[in-house]
Write a structure and sequence with these properties.
3 helices, elongated
């Protein structure tokens, strides 16, 4: 078999999760590098809810701009602003 197109893929089998883990460990040990984690990072202790809201375009543009200046996502910025406001209201 000289070319990939000559390979009979109908006879091939899938790689098992155990084999995939072994491959990852072998790559890390061979090249002395740590492979980056994939997927979404775990969230904190408090659970977040997926909510869809409508915002005025000026408010959204402001949030985008402020978040970019701080180097965070605009949804994270909006969440921080709302949490600060909620905490301030509780302490009154």
């Amino acid at each position: 078999m000289k070319k990939a197109k000559d390979f009979d893929f109908a006879r091939a089998r899938r790689v098992t999760p155990e084999e995939t883990l072994a491959f990852k460990k072998a790559i890390e040990n061979t090249f002395q590098i740590k492979r980056p984690a994939r997927g979404r990072p775990p969230k904190g202790d408090s659970k977040y809810r997926d909510v869809h809201i409508r915002l005025h375009p000026l408010a959204l543009a402001w949030a985008h701009t402020e978040a970019r200046h701080r180097g965070i996502g605009y949804q994270t910025f909006i969440n921080e602003v709302l949490l600060n406001r909620a905490q301030a209201a509780q302490h009154k």
